[in-house]
Amino acid sequence: MSKPKVNEELCIGCGTCESLCPQVFQIREGKSKVIAEECVNCNCQEAVDSCPVKAISLEK
């Protein structure tokens, strides 16, 4: 299973990922943080595709 990762240098803290996958992403100190290792009840690929600055990736 792929693990979500956020490039904090690119992240602008828009919150799209948190709104799509609140079990996995949370905005803290103005940046998105990964708070879970797996996407269970959401679609992390949608969060990757929706990030306006392409700061989210899925690593194998």
Topology of helices and strands:
Blueprint: E1 3-6, H1 16-20, E2 25-28, E3 31-34, H2 44-50, E4 56-59
Antiparallel strand pairs: 1-4, 2-3
Please tell me about this protein's structure:
- With 60 residues, the chain is an alpha+beta fold.
- The chain has a single domain, classed as Alpha-Beta Plaits.
- It is built from 2 helices and 4 strands, in the order E-H-E-E-H-E.
- Strands 1-4 form a two-stranded antiparallel ribbon. It has a two-stranded antiparallel ribbon with strand order 2-3.
- The longest helix is centred in the C-terminal third of the chain and has 7 residues.
- The chain is globular and about 25 Å long.
- The mean pLDDT is 94.
List its traits.
60 residues; alpha+beta; Alpha-Beta Plaits; 20% helix; 27% strand
* Percent of residues in helices: 10-25%
Strand proportion? 25-35%
**Count of discrete alpha- or pi-helical segments spanning 4 or more residues:** 2
Output the CATH topology. Alpha-Beta Plaits
Please give the order of strands in the largest beta sheet: 1-4
